[in-house]
Specification:
GO molecular function: tRNA (adenine(57)-N1)/(adenine(58)-N1)-methyltransferase activity; tRNA (adenine(58)-N1)-methyltransferase activity
Shape: globular
Helix content: 10-25%
EC number: 2.1.1.220
Keywords: Methyltransferase, S-adenosyl-L-methionine, Transferase, tRNA processing
Protein name: tRNA (adenine(58)-N(1))-methyltransferase TrmI
Oligomer: single chain
Function: Catalyzes the S-adenosyl-L-methionine-dependent formation of N(1)-methyladenine at position 58 (m1A58) in tRNA.
Number of helices: 9
Strand order of the largest sheet: 9-8-7-10-11-15-12
Largest sheet: 7 strands, mixed
Distance between the termini: 58 Å
């Protein structure tokens, strides 16, 4: 068995998705022009990548070093680099929309994805988040992905396998509904990227270990409200935390330092909460709700008052019934 220093050059053993040495046929590279426009290219012998400024022959890159410049037939210079995971995730073929790197980084950090962790995700989408989860848990961990649509699952499988160069031993892809198919126990983390994650709270609570992390990725304020209130109504999760992240580039050129003209604004909201021990109620939020927060127009889940024999929550509405 090669030592750890050597494993980086054997993707089928290290499963990092990172390659070293000369560029090889079948690898993806990124070609970038002087204006910052990028193109993802899969290297194949005998092929030509066509641009408006002339073609670039793949054979001129294969067996050569990474991080070089190459000129098209029209004498335009391009930078050729192996893509980082962030580059790969935004350029991969898509079935469902991908989770962008700024949110992936937040999920991996704030949900505390660690080597050896047992992680459940739903849905798999196009596999962008899955690649980050697998790299974080490593070959000693486990990622179980649920995807309702077979066509999306197939796209995810191709993208994840394409990134790592082989089937990752820590990954299991299940086609079906998480609520119906999840029968795991002692799960460390659950990541939900789906239309109605609140429908999964009870099932997820049974699967998570005490102290485990629930994380939901939702696009709208209505979804955000529903999942937060459902976690509160369940009673055995810590007070949910909700946030979004915004990323803005800066232009830096001598004394001309200013914000960039474009930024990555709202993509989605993230919600996290910790699983309490089974049967243990989380401390109630002491801050008084804003006026009207739970007025006559509010029809969502409600946590039962102390000493009340009422149900912990009203029936959860489906996404089509959301106010």
């Amino acid at each position: 068995m090669a030592d750890m220093a050597d494993l980086r050059d054997f993707p089928d053993q290290a499963y990092s998705g990172v390659h070293h040495g000369p560029l090889q046929e079948g690898e993806w590279i990124t070609l970038q022009d002087s204006k910052g426009r990028r193109h993802s290219v899969k290297l194949e012998r005998g092929k030509i990548f066509h641009t408006t400024k002339g073609g670039i022959e793949h054979d001129d890159l294969i067996d050569g070093p990474d991080a070089v410049t190459i000129r098209s037939k029209g004498n335009v210079e391009y930078l050729a680099l192996r893509p980082l995971m962030a580059d790969y995730s935004v350029s991969m073929p898509r079935g469902a929309a991908v989770i962008y790197p700024k949110d992936t980084a937040q999920i991996v950090t704030m949900a505390d994805i660690f080597p050896g962790a047992k992680v459940v995700e739903a849905g798999a989408g196009s596999g962008a988040l899955t690649t980050a989860l697998l790299r974080a848990v490593g070959i000693q961990g486990q990622v179980i992905s649920f995807e309702r649509r077979e066509d999306f699952a197939e796209v995810a499988r191709k993208n994840v396998t394409g990134f790592f160069g082989a089937e990752h031993p820590a990954w299991r892809l299940e086609i079906g509904d998480l609520v119906e198919k999840l029968n795991e126990q002692d799960v460390d983390r659950v990541i939900l990227d789906m239309l109605a994650p609140w429908e999964c709270v009870d099932v997820v609570a049974e699967a998570l270990s005490p102290g485990g992390v629930f994380c939901a990725y939702v696009a709208t304020t209505t979804q955000l409200s529903r999942v937060v209130e459902t976690l509160r109504a369940h009673g055995e999760f810590t007070e949910p935390r909700a946030w979004e992240s915004l990323v803005r580039d800066w232009h830096v050129e001598g004394l001309a330092v200013r914000p960039g003209h474009r930024m990555q604004g709202h993509t989605a909201f993230l919600v996290t909460a910790r699983r309490m021990a089974h049967g243990v109620q989380a401390p109630r939020k002491k801050r008084r709700p804003a006026p009207g927060a739970y007025g006559d127009d509010y029809a969502g889940p409600r946590r039962a008052e102390p000493g009340s024999e009422a149900s912990a929550e009203q029936p959860v509405q489906t996404s089509g019934d959301m106010p």
